[in-house]
Write a structure and sequence with these properties.
By secondary structure, this protein is α+β, with helices and mostly antiparallel strands. It is built from 6 helices and 6 strands.
Length: 170
């Protein structure tokens, strides 16, 4: 019973372009949310790249795309513009990482792939009256990004540099 449920959970998460919450899955399979959390932990332990986000579970497989990190530094009010610049270049923003002086690296899953994702993220920040991770480091942060090719990555770097947001090795 549990193995069949986990197989179905894996299929749903893998085939969805939106996050699926543990509560939604729990209702669907008529089990507790905690059972779903355990199921997902087992799936992750088996090597499935399931990510937990604030909205639920996602599994974006970008094997065909170029994946890289980019270091940026900008004011909080430039966040939406930064995300829009990247999305308009067909660059997905997978996560954000800051290097905290006490806790070390802290990473938050973003999985931003379109304008709707940007608006949802910005609205969540405003509505939940919370701060961006980058506020812990005065605007300095890393993104893991996914793009069609290394050429698109380099074009994105050029655009970020033009805006003055790219942190470069000197």
């Amino acid at each position: 019973m549990g193995e069949k449920r986990r197989t179905e959970i894996l299929k749903q998460i893998a085939n969805s372009t939106k996050a699926i919450s543990a509560s939604t899955l729990a209702k669907q399979f008529n089990v507790s949310r905690q059972v779903i959390v355990g199921d997902v932990a087992l799936l992750r332990a088996q090597g499935h790249p399931i990510k937990a986000t604030a909205k639920g579970y996602v599994m974006f497989l970008d094997e065909e795309r170029f994946i890289a990190k980019v270091a940026v530094d900008h004011l909080e009010e430039d966040t939406e513009a930064e995300l829009k610049l990247l999305i308009d270049m067909d660059v997905y923003i997978l996560d954000v990482t800051v290097d905290h002086p006490i806790y070390g690296e802290i990473t938050g899953q973003l999985n931003i792939r379109n304008d709707e994702d940007i608006q949802n993220f910005i609205n969540d920040i405003k509505n939940k009256e919370t701060e961006l991770l980058s506020s812990l480091t005065k605007g300095v942060h890393l993104h893991t990004i996914s793009c069609e090719s290394k050429k698109y990555y380099e074009l994105a770097l050029d655009e970020l540099k033009e805006k003055g947001w790219l942190i470069e090795n000197n």
